[in-house]
Every structure is written in C-alpha cells, then in structure tokens.
Amino acid sequence: MLWLAVVVPDLPLLAFPGHPSPFAVTEGRRLLACDGKARSHGLSPGMSATESGVLCSDLSLRDRDREAEGRVLSIVASILYRVSPHVGVRPSGAVAQFTDQVTPFRDIRRVLDDLQERFCKAGITATMACAPTAEAAMLCATADPGRVLTRQDNWREHVARLPVTCLPFAEYAGLFEELRLRTLGECLALPRAGLMRRFGAGVGAFFDRLLGTQAEILVPWRPPVAFSRRLHAPYALDSEEALLFALRRPLAHLTQVLRRHDAMADQLVLDLTGDGQTQTQTFRLTTPARRGEAFLMLIRERFRDRSLPFAVTDIRVHCDVSVAREGSLTLWPEGGVRAEEWGVLVDRLQARLGSSSVCTVRWHADHRPEKATREWPWSSSVPASCGGAVEAHHPLWLVDPPESLAMADGQPRWQGEPLEWLEGPERIESGWWDGAVPREYFVVRATPGQRLWIFRTRENQWFLQGYFA
Fold this sequence. Notes:
5-stranded antiparallel beta sheet; Alpha-Beta Plaits; 14 helices; Dna Ligase, domain 1
C-alpha cells in the first residue's frame, strides 16, 4: 500500500478568505500563523499579540476558527476523494490510501500534478508526498514536499534523516533541543523504554506507526450527500395530480441515492417557479425515511384541498441526506409498526393543517398546575426548561378555569355527592412575581369511583382542579 499525504501549512489563514494584509491568526493571545506581509515586518508564529502590534501597527488579528478550518479540510478531502475512496482527515491536512501501481493515472507523479492543479484552482496552497505509511507521508509532506517513497526504496533511511521539527509534538520541542536531537534517526536510536519514559507512550506509538510496525487505523471521510434536481415542465402544471406525476421520477432517483449511501432523509424542499414568481415549499417527516415516495404523501396532503399557487413551469427538488443506518429490527416488531404509523399520521396532519397546528404538550418548571405545561410545535426542539419528570400524583386532565365546588355541612360536594378523602393536604404557594397562588390540594374519590384533584384557598373556597384517568 502507498499513502498520499496533503499538508496545508497556511490552514489557519485559509479559514479567513479575503483577509486584509498584513494579517495574522492568534490562539491564546499568541500568533499562530502570519501572512507574507506580516512576516516581512518581522512577525513569526509564537510571538505575543502585544509584541506583534508594536512591530506592525496596521496588523489585522483574528482568533482561530476551527470550524472554518474544518470546511477547508473538507474541500481538501473531497479533492483527494477523486483518486481514492479511502480518505482520512488530519488536523493539518488529509491522507489517501491506494496500491503502489494501480492509480487512476497509472503514475503517482501524474496524480500529484493533477491534485496540485486542483488545489490551486480551489485557492489552497498544499504540499504533498507519498510513503508506505501515513505518518511517514505526512512528515515528508511537511519537511520534504514532493517526495515519493515506495517499499522498493530505502524509505526508512530517508525518514530517519528528516528533522525533528517536523514532528507533530510542539510541546516537546524544547526537550528535543535540550537533548540535542536533530533528526528522527537520532530519536529512533534512543532506547524505547527511555523514549517512552521521557516523552510518553503516545510518542512511542507514533514511531511504531511511522515505521509500519503498528497498524494504522484510518477513520474514513465521506463526502456530504445532497440530492438536487431541476425539472422544466413542457407545459404549465396547474393541478395537484400533474405536479405529483412530474415529481415521481426525481423522487425515484432520490430513493436510489438514499439506498446507495445507506442513508435517510427527513426533509424535502421544492422551489416552484411560474408566472415570474417562485415559492418554496418544505416537507418534513417525523421519522426519517429511505424511500423518496414518502414525500409524495405529504405533497398530496398539502395540495389536496387547495390549488397550486400558480401554474408551475419549473421545479427544483432539493434534499439534504443524513447518513444514518436503520439499526437492528426489534424482537417484537408490532410496537415499531405502531410507532411508524403514528409518525405517518403526524406527517399527514402537518402537511394538511400546517406544522404550527400540530403541537405536543411538554412539562414546564412551575409549581402552579395551570402553568406547568407548554405547547410546542411537534417538529421544533423543546427548550431545556420544558423537561423534568412527571409527578405521578398530579393528573394530566386539568379543568381550566378551576370549577367551584358547592358546600354542604362545611364539606365540598361534587355534583351533589359527598367526597372520600384519599391524600392531602399538599400545599403549593408559588408565583409571587405574577400573582401568588397559595393553595392546599387533596386527592378525593367521588361516589361513582372517579378520582378528583381539588384544592382549598385561603378564603376556604373549594375548587375542582383536575381528573385522574
């Protein structure tokens, strides 16, 4: 096997395209990377931000943006994905694996030339190298760009001549200098026990992977999957059936994409264009599906009782695909079937009535029963304040507003019948910020066997608050 490594030396700078010059990226109030104009003023990585401001008064500084760096690395990985399906992302670049002879161009140097051209078109300055191990390829790409080493070469001897400054252990740079270790060969010549005692087991494992004595585990990178199709109707679509007929073929293609990537989708976006205007329609599934036809039902429900906004002549279908496996089947599938049917029912109601019309009830952190729940749209995320355990001795069926109870012989009555006292009192006194509610709650049983939740106010008035199931 042969590994191709790509290192992006100016990765922190590439995270800020179009930055003003002179420019530098900081991390922990120290310079992490500088552009050419900043270096011409005497700035270098490791210098404090205060000192750099003295040397270069018009210097522009930005804190490191790891998320933007990740997007740059995704571009690098996607370019590498053209030459190998086995691609992995590293903190400073990416690696790709393929055989020594079999490559898309039959020549590794032609591969490097083609990749360099693509990186230049993407505005990415990268260095590359090849070696029998991924760690060796990364070090060569850092210290000896363009080097191609195969197993037929004395590649270990070449790696041993690389400087220790290319090692990804910046925290040990001072110790390397103190021990006067200048090359990797001098490090490898040290007794392994002493090396691991001074630098830790991680450094020893790195050298094992570097020399190929320990297997390298590649965490595969996969390109993000998105489905997009544009349809131009030969005639204006002015009915639900005509729209559904036009969408059957692209949704069948969506099914093939989902199956090919072992993925699912939970949202479909339609951009309908006609009569000089465009309208966006979004369809969401409660449970992600692998069949594109699942969205046909939602489209049919939305336009069943309403006409299209205008005669449609152009349709753009877009779907973001999330790579998520279905998992194992349950031992008793009946419950799963019921859950799936419930999800289909919710999707149909949302498509027919609108997503804001289908709500779920969530608990809210408030002791007052009438304020202890909130309604949230089914598809929206629930705020953290709406969590919490459900009190088992509080009913879910509340009377709003509470119903006043008649009194007889100093005792409350429900529908003229006496009550049997089961639990209580439970005192709730809360809401001083918007009207205090001092109450004493009791659980009682009515004559027909119905359990009720009643309370008494300070004025000795009794009210029915809720029913137990």
